[in-house]
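Standup notes
- HV: blocked on the assembly model, inputs below
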Amino acid sequence: MPNLFGLRDLTAEQLTYLIGQSRSMLEVLQRPVPVVPALRGRRIGLMFFEPSTRTRMSFELAVKNLGADSLNFSAGGSSLSKGETLLDTAMTVSALGAHCIVVRDSHSGMPEFLSRHLDLPIINAGDGTNEHPTQALLDLVVMGEEWDDAFAGKTLSIVGDISRSRVARSNLWAARTLGMTVRLVAPRTFVDPGLEDCFGVPVFTDLEQGIRDADAVMALRVQKERRQAGGPYIPETLDYFLRYGLTRKKLDDLAPNAVLLHPGPVNRAVELAPDLLYNPDRSRIQRQVTAGVAVRMAVLYWALGASDE
Amino acid sequence: MDEAQVQECTGAMISQLQSGIPDGQPVIVVGIREGGDVLGLRIADGLREAGVDVAGVGALDITLYRDDFGHRTHWPDVRDSDIPVAIDNSTIILVDDVLFTGRTVRAAMNALLDYGRPDRVVLAVLVDRHARQLPICADVVGARLDAERDILCQVQFREQGADSDQVLVSGAV
Amino acid sequence: MNRLIRFSGATVRIPGRSPEVRDLAVQGGIVVDAPASENDIVIDATGLELLPGLTDLHVHLRDPGLTYKEDIESGTRCAVSSGVTSVVALANTDPVNDNPETTRYVIEQAESRAWCRVLPVSAATMGLNGEELAPYHQMLDAGCVAISDDGATVEKAGVMRRVMEYARSVNLPILPHCEDRSVRAGGVMNAGEVAVSLGLPGNPREAEEICLARDLLLARLTGAHLHVQHVTTAGGINLIRNAKAEGVRVTAEVCPHHLFLTDEAVRECGTHAKMAPPLRTASDVDALRDALREGVIDVIATDHAPHARHEKDLPFEAAPDGIIGLETLMPLCLKLVAEGVMDWERLLDLVVTGPRRVLGASGDVLGTGAPADFCLVDCSREWTYVADDGQSKSNNSPFDTWTFTGRVTTTFVDGVCRWDLDDVMPDSLKPRAGVPFQRP
């Protein structure tokens, strides 16, 4: 069953394939009519049990651009803590004729859990603190545009709450497979025990050392909520911004060749100085959004078209 | 067919196309991947040499328009299309290497129409196998092949890595 | 029915005495010393080991209130299948056992439906809320044998201190579940490479050790008897060793799963390898095994914690902590002996006399006049444990499909047969439920 649970177990060939297919989809998006009939008649269940605007919209657009229809489920305000209720909903979606399910949930491993009970391709749109594979794929597509898809040996610095960022984790898995060098930059509250050993990457608590000469710098969103489970992780955000926030000057001085990535939405003056957001020399944040639709189109097309391996 | 014959047929196709194009209309050559795009480039070159104003040369990947999706192939391979100029009100010369059931051309026309509204589409193929499943016919044909449906006909071009241009017809297994 | 039952041909292993092949005679619920007579019912136990019944100090029977997971009848049936003749039943039931009525309920149920002795535990605080003390005197009178908030931890050191001080008046041991929730920080498995790889929040060993250190120091301050439940880390072993050397009244237990499995088991078993405290690493397993031999660990107990299928069939983070363990207790103990981790004598100390000492009972078992609580073990029996086919209502075990050598064939409690695996008992001795309450 062609599932996309994460990037941890994908080979370099598989990653390269998905990146390549995403580029083909990018071309579709540039056409006067950016819609193809490829998945006409197919129904994709979009099950977002954790609130999300961007990823959901991106998937919805991907579905429409492929000529398919979506069945939308969301969990209102409170999160669905009982997996059985979510399972019931997934079973209903399946019974309604969904050909594939895209799921986002606050529990790590939810896509695999659904896959044990449903005979449908399952695409992970973010599971707990585990992975967000389509996000990391779009990051690779955007970085690949800078480097002609020559990833090996390139340095990516990731700044932010690594342990709780599924975006960072998916990027870490893919980077390892593709031979990229990754540096993590964060206060140690953001780095759980075992992280460095598991991924084999260094952690810098000093931003300067962490981003020096990087080819790409990825800033992760920092939770601003005061009370967080397991926290407090950082003092008030100015303190974090002074030490770990990215500014034009810091990038110009320390990583002049680096492109800037951020999964969005950006907390201005926490992760990034406001003037970096749309800076055309550096920021690829807008491009990430476009690439995201293409990646999700590629993944959906593959999930519905590929044979069982 | 060997390389000399391929070149002869291609030349004949170019002549036929040239005579059929009304003056003043921009001509865009679009080849269908894979094979048709290589042939399309050759035809475009030939037309230019013959003095035809070729406004652009493009390639179409019709994977996303196929009607047999869901018969799962190993991992589907979508290549990008490349239509570099606007196609409204133009004459499109749609090029493919082999015309067989007509399904590829049907998909290509759907794809093309998502790029704009051409004035005319002229279909030019190197080999016409005459085993149509849809009502499609070629306007310009290089060579005809009458064979059972299970016979395989492959065209190989140098640009694709072959030693020489050739058309191979092989028996059913 | 008061005929004498004579078990003959077994290797009788009584702690403190050399093992010998001899008869054991039982009558009126106790062991008797009588010459053979024709009136005896003779049970041929040739080739089997006859062991005193085990006492499991850490069992969740889920009764009252959570009986869809397990109840007094099914839980004690699990116990006797492993030769356990006394279970200490923890208080995190519904309602919590923080009042004499609930204690009496458990005892009454056991007297009519249990297959082995049930010894209730009083909660340490009302409703396990970590604030108000439960009425220990009344709980003692009602039949409780220990004090524990297990399931929960008393968060405030100051309250735990008072728990220990007040418990001294009733001379009951306190069984702490050592876990600092704030340091655990929502972790669901051991903090380490496996947790990171699986994308699951980690529960660092320090969460256990911080609370353990705290409780050991409070035990030093108050002079209470602390029996530390489920120790899982090498660091914890060191803390206990030091405390014992200082003269603190502390005993400690280890669970079988922490002696055999590491956090890698989560990859294969999923939520059936999820419990608190969690499975740790290979070096911890080694340290725990060493501690068994050394004597820093006094007891093996299961922390039998049933949960229904639908509760465990969830993504890892959403499932409750706990695995069952009664049915695999004896097989895993026999495996420890077979692997050379310990000998029979040490094993019996860990599962028979050690637990009894914690409860303040004498270590003399199966002597003349002692209660006839014992089991017969066929040490050559090969079998496969299938959790779905077990005695428990639940099947949440990481040992599912493990093959074992050695199995309990017969268990007697109070001179009555409670477990007859091969159905070899004569009609008059077929297993019967209902065990009268008796303080250990």
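- HV (later): unblocked. The interface with chain B takes residues 17, 21, 23-28, 31-33, 35-39, 66, 298, 301-302, 304-308 of chain A (CB under 8 Å). Residues 77-81 of chain A have pLDDT under 50 and may be disordered.
- Next: hand off to the docking folks.
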